[in-house]
Amino acid sequence: MLKQNPMKIKFLFIIILIIIFNSCNKRTEIVKRTETKLFGDSLKIDYTIIGDTIYQKRTDLKGTKNDGFDDSYDVKSVWKTLKTSELNCAKKIKISKKQLDYIFCLDDILKLTKKQLNNRTEIKWNEKNIQNLYSELQQIKNAELDTISSTNYYMIYYFVRNAKVFIYDQNTKSNISNIRVEKYETTFSGGHIYYLINKKTDTIAKYNLNDWIK
Q1: By the 8 A CB rule, do 125 and 189 touch?
Q2: CA distance 204 to 195
Q3: Cα–Cα distances in Å, from 87 out to 82, 103, 178, 204?
Q4: What is the pLDDT of residues 60-106, one digit of tens each?
Q5: What is the model's pTM?
Q6: Where are the alpha helices (DSSP H) in the chain?
Q7: CA 165 to CA 89: how far, in whole Å?
Q8: Are 37 and 47 in contact (CB under 8 A)?
Q9: 58 and 73 in contact (C-beta within 8 Å)?
Q10: Which residue of 61, 102, 146, 202 is most buried, as measured by CB atoms within 10 A?
Q11: Taking the mean position of all CA atoms in its chain, how far away is CA 112?
Q12: 43 exposure class (CB count in 10 Å sphere: 0-12, 13-18, 19+)
């Protein structure tokens, strides 16, 4: 039986490690690209796209020449995709709004609502409504109430961002499979845009929720 050279084996092992490391680096490399689009003679948008982040430089080509106002500004958008899922929990809660059923695990919603009571981060969801919701959720848990009275969009999409959710569209009789979320920010406003997409990649609904404005 031929003896194997330990040095050759060690050298070969190092080469394999280098190949694997370089391959991983290539896969995780963030690609940056730029492009410019013109919209008639009034608007130019310069896009810089880095991974899931898009920077827009929106230039009002007419500027102050015609109306005395320059509508140029910058936008930063960070994109992510949320997946809906089948829920595995003892008790669920359904919130229906505009022909869409949002279904969550009751315990998840209770925890998130209590978290907002202790440290409110959702500006458009006031303290009184949070307190009312928490009280109603407790009643539902104790089988004293069937549904909640409040269906604030900011409340619903706070839950969508932070908990497992199943969404059913009553109009198309289909389930929502993906939620594309754009978190945008300008110098004067910020918020989230939600695109609800079914398995056929059709956009079922779009909601632009402005969180703050100067």
Answers
A1: no
A2: 8
A3: 15, 8, 15, 21
A4: 888 766 666 788 889 999 999 999 998 999 999 999 999 999 999 99
A5: 0.79
A6: 6-28, 64-67, 106-118, 127-141, 153-162
A7: 12
A8: yes
A9: yes
A10: 102
A11: 17
A12: middle
